[in-house]
Amino acid sequence: MSEGSQLVHQAGTTMGEIVTSVQRVTDIMAEISAASQEQSAGIEQVNQTVARMDETTQQNAALVEEATAAAHSMEQQAQALAKAVSLFHHSAGTGHAGIASRRTA
Known about the structure:
With 105 residues, the chain is mainly alpha-helical. The protein is 98% helix and 0% strand. Mean pLDDT is 89; it is low at 98-103.
């Protein structure tokens, strides 16, 4: 009988160790789950940041296009203004000469 009691005692001890091991595995799996959730939240934040950066980049590209178009327009207007001013200079130069010619005559 003592041998049977000893086997029962060993079985009880082994079962206790198994329960303890299962509890440790459960704890580890809970830690892994929590870490995975944190990682998932971090990845989501990165995705949101990348999306915002993409949106900002697209807005900047649109602003650059608008600025380029405005610069070309201003350049054309400046050329037209320079041409108009040069006509006044030529016209004024001819006008003064004509007035001077009339006075001397």
